[in-house]
Amino acid sequence: MTALAQQRSLSEQFPRLTADGGRPNVRELERLRARARRFAEAHVRPRALEIDRRTGEDPSWFDWDLVRAGAEQGMLSFLIPKPAGGAGGLSTQAAVVMEELCVACPGIALIFGAHALGISPLLLGGPSHWDGVLAELIASESSREPQLMACAITEPEAGTDVEDPDLLARARISSHARRVPGGFRLSGTKRFISNGSVARWITILMPTDPRRPAETWTCFLVDAHSEGFAVSRAEHKMGQRACPAAELTFDSVFVPDERVVGREGDGAPATMIVLACSRPPVGAIATGIARGAYERVLAWLEEDRAARGLLERQHVQLALAGMEEEIHLARQLYMDAATELDHAALGGVMSHPAVRALGHVPASIRGRAPVRGWLSSERARDATIALLHRTTSERAMTRSLALSSMAKARGGDVAMRVTGAALELAGLRAGAVRAELEKLWRDAKLCQIYEGTNQLNRIEVYRGLCRRETIACLPPLRPIRLDTDASAHTNGDAPAHLDTGALRHASVDGNGGRS
Amino acid sequence: MTGATVAERAEIRAMARELARRELTPRAASLDAGDQDARAACWRLLVELGLDRALLDEQHGGAGLDVSDLLASIEELAVGDGGIAACVLLSNVALATLASEQLTDITPGARWVLISAGSSEMTVSDGKIDGRIACALGAHEADGLVLSLTSPKPVAVAVSAGASGLTLQRDAAQMGLRAAPAASIEMAGVKGSVIASNGAAAHALLRAGVAAIARGIARQAYEMAFEYAQARRQGGVAIIEHDAVNDMLAAMAVRLACRPVLAAEDSGRKLDGTRALAVKIAATDAAVATTTDAVQVFGGTGYMVETGVEKLMRDAKYCQLFPEPNWVAQDQLMRAERADRTA
């Protein structure tokens, strides 16, 4: 760890974490970070180079033992809501875990990061998934066969285009989810999908009308065992190889209605929320990569005979100070973005009394057919969206997205600069450490590309912060009545007695009562 | 001294360009993957053209090129593959360091490399060499090494690959310029032929050559990025229409337009060592920036090995680190500048 971070606790570094009675959460966060660090030191770093070598020769090779070891440390469930048996984390937890794992190996960290990304649309899908796939993931975590998730957005002809609602409207989308009795049939190709070839469950975005992709972009939960699903290619990547990137082919894959995540047509704003949630962890991935390079080159300078005398050079001292500085700034950025999202933008949903109340209902009751039927009903989905509008606003989400994008873009640049500088300090003749530094440098480049290129991310900073625009990043409200005590309804009927006028007011006042 | 005419010199460059286009570019992925057959096939072609010993005179089987022609040819070859261009550079520097009588013992087509070493790595005493070099570019499967030491006093020693006490081990982790396969070198009482050389010309040529390789790599990256940016559409238009992409391409074009002049003395056979250092630093930093942006223009596609553009980024990074990291080169440059002014 960099010296500054080592000397201060999380609550000292980031006081916002303790706001609103959050001190117990900080203690949980410290424990999660310690677990991630133990896992990284014991299992990840010792295997990083070997896995990089093997996956360089065969991109489809995958280390399930490592996933099992991570599962034992809770690396597959930190994002799963507590009512479903997980740790109930959001962006902050994901980010803290990512930094720790990436110090050891960004490719291995990405396995767990891509899994969390696959889960995140389900959080927006509401409680209907708690007792379905999320419970199954929890059960698998303690078994010898942990299940992984992936999220599939990118298409061969649409990369940047699918990460911005305006661009999506003009995108060349080749996939199509056709409405059929009881559900949808998915066809098309998705590209560069992290975990795509090893995931059991995939959240996937497709339009129900390819001529109107932005309006009909919809999220589905796909079982990788479904007929018509195939992994058509394992990509050979420059870095972050431990986590496979795959091309996935969908040939009329059937997805039942209950596995539509959220509502049909809500995919574009939902994608923006997912990106707002996932970009701080990408900033953390980049910070971890930079920290990994910094720590390795510092140890080499301090301990290796070949580096004798170099620490006395001012050039080296200034370079190291610059690295510490950049890493510190990158961490501040991603933590600021993550806590903004968790406290001001999304956190209100998970801590809302209605959600908490539902969480206290035993899973055995939630799992009964009438309750399950209501939870996955269109009205319950409307209620989830209404709750989102009540606890946040499009402006607050846009600002949060902009901060997340800033953390991601800056972090990616820091990772490239620090790994490049560390490699230059060491040079070709540094011995064993060179291979690790070279790997981190190769790994770092992806941080400027995935989760939207840095250029796209900066356009979102411009829109959200420089111009104070409001991007459509909440699914639209529909006239419904939300039951604030949903657990009381077990007959599948629509819950009653919510004032929709208040909801509308919350959604159009520009600040959602938060900002 | 070369007697090549202007037309002949242009022909040599064209030949190197054509060789890169026809033979190296199509094999670049195989060369990067460590395909020995591909490397051997490329080397045979280069030997046929005399580019492995281009600086030597005809008596020694060379083409009698001057330094600027060799550098231009190396740049063209690097457009096809930086590693192969590095083999040509290392061979020419090594053979140009050898004495006339030593050259006659070298089998035509043999691949020699020049390795520079610090006093903490290798020592030469009574013609015997001891020490270890962690990573020597191009040394794996080379037929001979010319070891160039600058301290405590400048000396060069020629060692054939089969010399007793010499152990070479492939550097499996090598990230860039992989067609010039690196190895660690162990020498325990190895006998070599001492050459009367102060190493200055060899080191200047080495650095100028690395700058040429970096320029070739950057040119290829620019061409690939430009072509892709015209073909790829996002946001309803070709991505070259987006300022975000256009700006990166413009920066690449500007870096390529700033071509430094390598002042050569004696009709181009000798280089100014200090200037070679500066040019090497500038060209390799520019190549790293250009290739990194080229990958960015390609987006996710650029991060995939099969596209061939991420290889350019790795190759460029190695140019920045070889024969020494740029911060060390910068240090040497300032020492040389200060020494010049003191003198």
The stretches of 5 or more residues of chain B where confidence is low (pLDDT under 50) are none
Strand content of chain A: 5-15%
Q: List low-pLDDT spans of chain A.
A: 481-515
Percent of residues of chain B in beta strands?
15-25%
Q: For the largest interface in this structure, which chains are involved and how many residues does each contribute?
A: A-B, 49 and 43 residues
Which sheet architecture does the biggest sheet of chain A show?
A: 4 strands, mixed
First and last CA, distance of chain A: 34 Å
Strand order of the largest sheet of chain A: 1-4-5-8
What keywords describe this structure?
heterodimer, A: 515 residues, alpha+beta, 4-stranded mixed β-sheet, 4-stranded antiparallel β-sheet, 20 helices, 54% helix, globular, B: 343 residues, 11 helices, 12 strands, 16% strand
Written account of the structure:
The complex is a heterodimer of chains A (515) and B (343). With 515 residues, chain A is of the alpha+beta class. Chain A is 54% helix and 11% strand. Chain A is built from 20 helices and eight strands. Chain A has helices at 3-7, 10-13, 23-57, 64-72, 91-104, 106-124, 133-141, 165-168, 213-216, 267-303, 314-345, 347-350, 353-360, 363-366, 369-375, 378-391, 394-426, 432-445, 454-466, 500-508, and strands at residues 149-152, 176-180, 183-194, 201-207, 217-223, 229-234, 245-256, 260-261. In chain A, strand 2 (176-180) and strand 3 (183-194) form a beta hairpin. In chain A, helix 10 (267-303) runs antiparallel to helix 18. The longest helix of chain A is centred in the middle third of the chain and has 37 residues, at 267-303. Chain A is globular and about 75 Å long. The two termini of chain A are 34 Å apart. Mean pLDDT of chain A is 89; it is low at 481-515. In chain B, the strands form four sheets. Chain B has a four-stranded mixed sheet with strand order 1-4-5-8, covered by helices on one side. A four-stranded antiparallel sheet of chain B has the order 2-3-7-6, with no helix packed on it. Chain B has a two-stranded antiparallel sheet with strand order 9-10. In chain B, a hairpin with a 2-residue loop joins strand 9 (233-234) and strand 10 (237-238). In chain B, helix 4 runs antiparallel to helix 5, helix 8 runs antiparallel to helix 9 and helix 9 (273-298) runs antiparallel to helix 10. Chain B has 343 residues and is an alpha+beta fold. At the A-B interface, helix 17, helix 18 and helix 19 of A face strand 3, strand 9, helix 9, helix 10 and helix 11 of B.
